[in-house]
Every structure is written in structure tokens, then in C-alpha cells.
Amino acid sequence: xxxxxxxxxxxxxxxxxxxxxxxxxxxxxxxxxxxxxxxxxxxxxxxxxxxxxxxxxxxxxxxxxxxxxxxxxxxxxxxxxxxxxxxxxxxxxxxxxxxxxxxxxxxxxxxxxxxxxxx
Length: 119
Ligand SMILES: [Zn+2]
Known about the structure:
There is one protein chain. The protein starts with a helix and ends in a 5-residue tail after the last helix. The protein has a 3-stranded mixed sheet, with helices on one face. With 119 residues, the protein is mainly alpha-helical. It contains 5 helices and 3 strands; from the N terminus they run αβββαααα. Zinc ion (ZN) binds next to helix 2 and helix 5.
């Protein structure tokens, strides 16, 4: 069983290096979401973001997943989100604000936003 999980983890990591494919997902609850090698985007919302910035942002998430492996990056992303959500919920007593802050302050998002800027 453990070997099978390791095999899947390594296989997914290898697949993350395939050419990036943008996939339109109508009901996506976000502007875009990266699960390497796919970048899922909501066709009804993605124009809300500057296109060049969005591409740079999501490509940085691809890089993060290629460096750490997609499974490890996504687990760390979720872990940071949960810890930050609980922290900000305890601090501000607002679900909406805690949700927004846990997304904004997630280290992976902070890092991706740095790459949005023109060089
Ligand atoms: Zn992001």
C-alpha cells in the first residue's frame, strides 16, 4: 500500500513537468486554480484579473508544485490555510475576514503575487 502511494506521488510529480494546459471550468469557485500540469480557470471570472498577471501568478504555482511535488505543495498549502484561518478567526471573529486573510497571507500566495509584477 505504502509503495503504491509513493508510486502515485512520484508519478504525479513527473506529470507536473508536462506542458501546462489551461482548462476552462464553468463552476470553479475561484478565478483560477493550479493543479500541475493543469491550470483550471473560470471563464466567467478570469477577466476580473489582468491576464498577464494571472498567467505569471498561476505559472508560479506550477513552479512551486514542480519544486515541492504537487502533493506536498497542496498539503502544505491546505495546512497553512487552515492554521491561518483558525488564527484569524480567533483574532477577528469574522468567518468572511478570516477566509480572506487565510488566502491573502498564505505563503504560497504571497510568493506567487511577487511574480505577478513586471520584471
Ligand atoms: Zn494563487
